[in-house]
Amino acid sequence: MILEIIKSKGISHNSYFLGSDGEAAVIDPRRDVKIYLELAMEHDMNIRYIFETHRNEDYTIGSLELKKYVDAEILHGDKLDFKYGTSVIEGDIFELGSLELEILETPGHTYESISIITKDKNIPLLVFVGDVLFPGEVGRVDFFGKEKIPQTASLLYESLHEKILPLGDHVIVCPAHGAGSVCDAQIRDQDLTTIGYEKITNHILKLDKEAFIEYKRREELYTPPYFKRMEKNNLEGAPLENPHLEPLNVQEFNDMIKEGAQLVDVRNPTSFCGGHIPGSLNIWGDGFPAFAGYFLEYDNPIILVDERGSNDLVRRSLIRLGYDNKYGYLQGGFPTWYINGMECENFEAWTVDQLKSHIDEGGDFTILDVRKHSDREKYHIEGSMHCWVGDIPENLDNIPDNVVVYCDSGYKSTIAASLLKMNGYNVKTVLGGINAWTRKGYPIMKS
User: Fold this and answer.
1) Phi, psi of 425, deg, nearest 5
2) Domain 349-439, what architecture?
3) What is the DSSP-derived secondary structure letter of residue 148?
């Protein structure tokens, strides 16, 4: 048996390549599918099955893209009217070399969620659980509205306790996400787990049904606006992806800006603050997969500027998030812009010492905390207002004109600050964020 985990950086997505005796299955493939084809070639295997554990919300699934290249059947749960593939139900069995793959219906996270048990000689070895169970966590149940949470939480509890946990303590659990995913708040930083280990360490599994439902009812999680597009793509089938980004010279790039393209600077905050193209939104490259979906829309062309030209992580992230309106990047990167004498702006960034000094002097500004609710509840700078960075676009009218923005370290605050500046605010970002603030011993408020 061959098992390979394919991780997608930024969205913390896990897909899987499972093989036995010349045959393979792929579970929850991402849209850029080259890796699965390479694995099939490396292990001399034919991909026979493509399983979708559920209609994923946080990325565009690559099933149709993969099927372009292989003679495989796409399989998913039957509680949604998918426009492609074949529905499966509980008890369906698929042979894969010497292995058997058995379907469990495990609703709760979504109604059509399935899990796939991998058996050898009728003994369960692995279970691919999608977003039902994670190391240290369980799936979120809020996608159908707060009024539905008692029902969906009840379904998830039953899926866990009546179907997954009885498989046996030795069974390896293969989740669709790792630590850092927006699909749940506190996923442990480990690739795989076992049912037995989760029984011992996962406190949510120790709750009775009533307490479990109440726990899920009180849970606060973020739902990025791009999830709606992902749900549509994954129900109807996304267009086959175009991986290309056009390299644009300075004149072409400037013309795109004048025509209203979405301009994203993917350099780090310090570089962005030092100089950038007017009207740029700053989302640093490593954070692009996690944050782009809060700020970019799916119609106007997207153009990118980095330090040296193209950025492959950003390109792949746009593909995975379904941004088929991606257009191009500034050839040669930001240096070619200023070398050609084009207009530049800088951005005022304060150190925490400067922030403390201006507070002590009674400066007339609002401090804006853009961290997660759970982080702010631990501690925050006294007198600051709060708005999670992903909620900024919907709350522009509620934010004062003169603001100084902080987050954990200065990356998310510069996203927020760049957006506010684009909308005419007098705004500054705090480099180092509250991490630097606490290291200097400056006072904090605890909730």
Assistant:
1) -80, 150
2) 3-Layer(aba) Sandwich (3.40)
3) G
Distances (CA, A) of 130 to 13, 16, 136, 143, 244: 10, 11, 15, 15, 30
In this prediction, residue 371 carries a pLDDT of 96
The CATH homologous superfamily of the domain defined by 246-339:
Rhodanese-like domain (3.40.250.10)
Other CB atoms within 10 A of residue 2 CB: 14
Please say whether the beta carbons of 116 and 160 come within 8 A: no
Is 420 in a helix, a strand, or coil?
helix
In the sheet with 99-105, reading across from the earlier edge strand, the strands are 93-96, 99-105, 114-120, 123-130, 172-175, 193-194
Is residue 19 pLDDT above 80, yes or no?
yes
HEC profile for 212-256?
HHHHHHHCCCCCCCCHHHHHHHHHHCCCCCCCCCEEECHHHHHHH
Distances (CA, A) of 383 to 371, 423, 429, 447: 15, 24, 17, 12
420-424 mean pLDDT: 96
Q: How far apart are CA 428 and CA 55, in angstroms?
A: 40
What is the average pLDDT score of the chain?
Answer: 94
Instruction: Please state which of the ranges 66-70, 144-148, 222-226, 359-363 shows the lowest mean pLDDT.
Output: 222-226
Instruction: Say which residues have a Cβ less than 8 Å from residue 235's Cβ, sequence separation at least 6.
Output: 55, 80, 81, 82, 83
Sheet holding 426-430, edge to edge: 349-350, 426-430, 402-406, 366-369, 385-386
pLDDT tens digits, one per residue of 383-420: 999 999 999 999 999 999 999 999 999 999 999 999 99
Scored b (16 or more CB within 10 A) or e, 222-245 reads eebebbebbbebbbebbeebeeeb
User: Which residues are registered as beta bridge partners of 19?
Assistant: 2, 24
Q: Which CATH superfamily is domain 2-235 in?
A: Ribonuclease Z/Hydroxyacylglutathione hydrolase-like (3.60.15.10)
> Residue 113 and residue 89: Cα distance in Å, rounded?
10
> Does the fold of domain 349-439 match that of domain 246-339?
yes
Quote the CA–CA distance of 247 and 238 in Å, as a whole number.
Answer: 25
User: Among all chains, which residue has been given the structure tokens 């179907």?
Assistant: 163
Percent of the chain with pLDDT over 70: 98
Side chain identity, residue 33: V
Domain range summary for the chain, segments of one domain joined by +: 2-235, 246-339, 349-439
